[in-house]
Specification:
The chain has eight helices and no strands.
Length: 146
C-alpha cells in the first residue's frame, strides 16, 4: 500500500490523496519529526498513537498498525517536501494548522526540543502554508495542553 502512495507522492504532478493516503502521509510526517532528533523514543511513539486515535477515530491496535506502516514509508521516502505537498493539497488551512499542532505534540512529547526538530518544524509548517506566527501559536496551545 505505501509503495503505491510513495509512487503517487513522487509523481511530477501527484494526484490528490485519498483519505487513507492522507492519513498515511500525515502519520509518516509525524514519524519524521519524531526521528529528526535521532532519538525516536517510546513516549514519541505513544504520542503519535494517541494522535492517530483521536484524529482518525482509531482504536489503539489500528493506531499502532498505521504508525508502523508509516515508519516503513517514512524510512523509504526521499524528502519532507512531498509529504507536505500531498497534505497541503488534501486538507484545508484550518486542518493544516491541526497538522502543525500534532507535530508540535510529538516534538514536545519527550520534554526536550532539539535544534533539528525546530528547523524541521519551521520548514514543514512553511511548506504546509502555515506561517511562523500560526505555528508559534500552535506550539503555545500544545505546550499549555501538555
Amino acid at each position: 500500500m505505501f509503495k503505491e502512495l510513495l509512487a503517487r507522492l513522487l509523481a511530477p504532478a501527484p494526484e490528490p490523496l485519498t483519505d487513507e493516503g492522507a492519513r498515511m502521509a500525515l502519520t509518516a510526517l509525524l514519524v519524521r519529526i519524531a526521528r529528526s532528533d535521532q532519538n525516536y523514543s517510546e513516549v514519541e511513539k505513544d504520542r503519535i498513537d494517541r494522535i492517530i486515535c483521536s484524529r482518525f477515530d482509531q482504536d489503539t491496535g489500528g493506531a499502532i498498525i498505521l504508525r508502523e506502516q508509516a515508519e516503513a514509508m517514512e524510512a523509504e521516502a526521499p524528502d519532507t517536501v512531498r509529504f507536505t505537498r500531498a497534505i497541503k493539497e488534501a486538507v484545508s488551512l484550518e486542518d493544516r494548522i491541526g497538522v502543525v499542532e500534532a507535530m508540535w505534540q510529538v516534538v514536545l512529547a519527550d520534554g526536550h526540543r532539539d535544534a533539528g526538530e525546530d528547523a524541521l518544524m519551521r520548514l514543514t509548517a512553511n511548506l504546509l502554508g502555515v506561517n511562523d506566527l500560526e505555528s508559534a501559536q500552535a506550539r503555545k496551545r500544545m505546550e499549555a495542553a501538555i
